[in-house]
Design a protein that fits this description.
single chain; mainly alpha; 2 helices
Length: about 40
């Protein structure tokens, strides 16, 4: 679980540096959670 949080944090920082809109980030985060819970995002 820690590894997934680390990767999510790194991705968030990358998106921030690219000035991605927060709404797009939230949508992407939701997709990540869906993939992780279905076992495809691991």
């Amino acid at each position: 679980m820690d590894e997934m949080h680390k990767r999510a944090e790194e991705a968030r920082k990358k998106l921030e540096s690219l000035s991605v809109d927060k709404v797009q980030y939230e949508a992407g985060k939701a997709m990540c959670l869906l993939q992780a819970t279905s076992g495809q995002g691991v």
